[in-house]
Amino acid sequence: MPEHSDLDAALMLRVKRGDRAAFGELVEKYKQPLFNFISRYLRDEVESEDLAQNVFLQMYKSRQRYEQTAKFSTWLFTIARNLCLNEIRRRSRHPAESLEETHSEHEDQPQRQYEDKTTSLPADQVLHSELARKIEQALAELPEAQRTAILLCRQDELSYDEIAQILDCSLAATKSLIHRGRETLKEKLKPYLQSGDWKD
Length: 200
Prior knowledge:
mainly alpha; Rna Polymerase Sigma Factor, Chain: A; disordered C terminus; Arc Repressor Mutant, subunit A
């Protein structure tokens, strides 16, 4: 995609000049895709909401350094991936602390009550829900680069070239990561799938 047709980059250049309305437009457009990516990466809904907000905070703080050298979405998801990696590293260094934080964060909050809908759902919806859980579990077990490549591939606005830039590797290596990740997922999910065809 030619740079001049990247409307999001044009909005970011307006943000760089102090246009808060342009910033709001970008937040509105990307808040759900970013949350989807981060929540599948971290598998923690509360933490994912905080991290998604942090992505936009970093985006705003970096506005004066922004240059249109890549597509805007590539730049934004690179920030998101880096923050996810930082969070994973923090958890691995302080696993006990992370558990304590999670406990204390929710101590004073009323417990959310979720209705168990599985008993009232049609059988096919129950199976679909179970498959979704199995997919998320299988994704979490992939090596980091493969998992990230697969998750980024789910974002409609990102091409293979842009995913390669985010992962900081060649286009061939990116395609290989996606292929290997999909093959591993198909193997893990074979008992739950009626067909071996991966739906892009």
